[in-house]
Design brief:
It is built from 6 helices and 5 strands; from the N terminus they run ααβαβααβαββ. The chain is of the alpha/beta class and about 170 residues long. Helix 3 links the parallel strand 1 and strand 2.
């Protein structure tokens, strides 16, 4: 969790750190993820994702590979604004985007299809034959784009700003 999550602000590429609650959340989640026996951890370059990944890396004694391809959606003109502000200032575009429209976020931001491609490419770069379990630390919008692009059956556990998805490597 970040302060901007609480305020319902579009974070996007804005480099907002975890708040105290966010730090407590990652400390609780890390031991659970350790039970997956990760071989590698990759993370978005944004600080909130790096802080999340580092909590797991510390207890697994693994390095974190940083890849900007896992960044959250660039929100264009919506970044830093609340959902209410974006609905007020750009209602039709914002609501259509929330409904899954593949137009640039905030008029000048990224399309979902581009996000999916860059993030899946980052995952593919991290995989090799020695990897049984890859932990990908990214962002909510990016995770949804990844799952939408990969044609696999997955198991998902969700909360407001986090999810765990298990995908078989053979699919």
């Amino acid at each position: 969790q970040t302060d901007w999550n609480i305020e319902n602000r579009f974070q996007g590429h804005s480099d907002i750190p975890l708040n105290d609650t966010g730090h407590r959340q990652v400390k609780k989640a890390a031991p659970l993820l350790k039970n997956l026996a990760p071989d590698r951890i990759i993370s978005s370059d944004l600080i909130r994702a790096q802080q999340t990944a580092q909590a797991l890396a510390d207890i697994c004694q693994l390095p974190v590979a940083i890849d900007a391809g896992l960044r959250e959606t660039h929100g264009g003109k919506w970044e830093g604004k609340t959902g209410a502000q974006n609905r007020e200032e750009d209602f039709e575009r914002f609501v259509n985007w929330l409904d899954g429209d593949d137009q640039p976020a905030g008029e000048t931001g990224e399309k979902r299809s581009f996000i999916a491609q860059r993030a899946v490419s980052a995952i593919e770069r991290a995989l090799d034959n020695s990897i049984n379990t890859l932990i990908v630390v990214t962002h909510g919008g990016t995770a949804r784009c990844i799952l939408g692009k990969i044609d696999r059956k997955s198991t998902r556990l969700n909360s407001s700003h986090s999810s765990v998805s298990r995908m078989p490597s053979s699919a």
